[in-house]
């Protein structure tokens, strides 16, 4: 019956593996079996799940459908190939066994006409990474360029740091043009305009910005449309610490995800900006606490190598924290890594003498059991 249907039909199982299709789907997408014939293709192979700058850049189609509260409207997927068609308009239906039924019609790459606006694009539409060097990603287009390292980018980063409140224009003028007087206010408005256009290069003239809202004589980021890794990191740390305090098994999973998100100091590409320092130090403290708790949990489970890995990260973050360094040395001895312990001890001792004129108040012989 499906052979006569004038559009492509693909069925995927609950793991996203292709389990069936009609001839039109093969005409639209090309061969639908792997050359080796061993494993079936997955939805990610065919539709570009998690491919940068695609409509599915942030997630797999399977996850999207599972999390959807409302029916998913038809949307366009650009194909990672040359040829005809260059894109597909697809609709998705979840099957009773948690698989997917996808229908596909030919489209044209770059065609911005939509029957309806996909809700997972509109809210939120921007993903921002601030842990480590600043990173921006949009489901609709790639966001990159030198502007992030210039004045417009610095202004945007300031709004990110202070995203919990509207930032007055006068405050922005004082931070970035302290001696500018009237010209400073014009500069603020101009560079906000630059940021808006950089974030939404295809925004129509006079159309309100999706991300920067004018409010109370200043500007505020619309965080309902923006995902920021620091917010997710902080939420995971809080959940992990709370679970650890209650002795729940999920503590390690939450804290591990938080540690993975912490790719570096807040806005590492702005190392000398004094307006970052307080928030940077606060998040660093949360990361240190997450790593310390992970080390303690893994040590309690007898997973010494995992505990050591987290303590090493913590020791790199806190090179002058003698208690942390002592814990790492103790664990190295417990793991039988005496040469490593000796090298680390000598390095720590020299570091403390050089910077503080102080010697260590313990020897390697004193270290037997880590104190976490």
Q: CATH fold name of the largest domain, please?
A: Beta-Lactamase
Helix content: 40-55%
The secondary-structure element order is: EEHHHEEEHEEHEHHEEEHHHHHH
In total, how many beta strands?
A: 11
User: What about the largest sheet?
Assistant: 5 strands, antiparallel
So what's the overall shape? flat
Strand order of the largest sheet: 2-1-5-4-3
Low-confidence runs (pLDDT<50, min 5 residues)? 114-122
Radius of gyration: 26 Å
- In the CATH hierarchy, what is the architecture of the largest domain at level 2? 2-Layer Sandwich
Under CATH, the homologous superfamily of the largest domain reads: PAS domain
Strand content: 5-15%
Distance between the termini: 66 Å
Q: How many structural domains can be distinguished in the coordinates? A: 3
Total of DSSP H or I helical runs spanning 4+ residues = 13
Mean model confidence by pLDDT? 86
- What is the CATH C level class of the largest domain, in words? Alpha Beta
The SS-based structural class is alpha+beta
């Amino acid at each position: 019956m499906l052979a006569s249907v004038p559009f492509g039909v693909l069925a995927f199982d609950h793991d996203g593996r292709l389990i069936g299709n009609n001839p039109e789907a093969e005409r639209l997408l090309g061969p639908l079996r792997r050359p080796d014939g061993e494993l079936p293709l997955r939805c990610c192979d065919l539709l570009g799940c998690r491919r940068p700058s695609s409509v599915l850049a942030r997630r797999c189609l399977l996850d999207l459908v599972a999390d959807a509260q409302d029916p998913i409207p038809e949307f366009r997927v650009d194909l990672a190939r040359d040829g005809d068609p260059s894109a597909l308009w697809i609709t998705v239906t979840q099957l009773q066994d948690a698989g997917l039924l996808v229908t596909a019609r030919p489209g044209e790459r770059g065609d911005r006409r939509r029957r309806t606006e996909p809700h997972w694009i509109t809210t939120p539409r921007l993903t921002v990474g601030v842990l480590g060097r600043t990173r921006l990603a949009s489901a609709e287009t790639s966001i990159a360029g030198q502007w992030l390292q210039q004045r417009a980018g610095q202004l945007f980063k300031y709004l990110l740091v202070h995203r919990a409140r509207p930032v007055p224009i006068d405050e922005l003028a004082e931070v970035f043009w302290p001696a500018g007087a009237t010209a400073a206010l014009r500069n603020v408005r101009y560079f906000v305009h630059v940021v808006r256009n950089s974030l939404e290069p295809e925004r129509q003239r006079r159309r309100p910005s999706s991300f920067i809202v004018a409010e109370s004589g200043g500007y505020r980021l619309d965080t309902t449309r923006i995902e920021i890794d620091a917010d997710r990191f902080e939420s995971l740390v809080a959940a992990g610490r709370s679970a650890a305090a209650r002795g729940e098994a999920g503590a390690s999973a939450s804290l591990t995800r938080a540690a993975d998100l912490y790719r570096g100091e807040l806005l590492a590409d702005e190392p000398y900006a004094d307006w970052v320092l307080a928030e940077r130090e606060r998040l660093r403290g949360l990361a240190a606490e997450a790593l310390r708790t992970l080390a303690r949990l893994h040590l309690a489970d007898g997973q010494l190598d995992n505990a050591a890995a987290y303590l090493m990260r913590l020791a790199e973050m806190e090179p002058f924290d003698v208690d942390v360094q002592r814990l790492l040395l103790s664990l190295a001895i417990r793991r039988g890594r005496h040469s490593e312990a000796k090298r680390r001890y000598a390095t720590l001792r020299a570091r403390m003498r050089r910077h503080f004129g102080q010697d260590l108040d313990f020897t390697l012989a004193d270290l037997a059991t880590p104190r976490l």
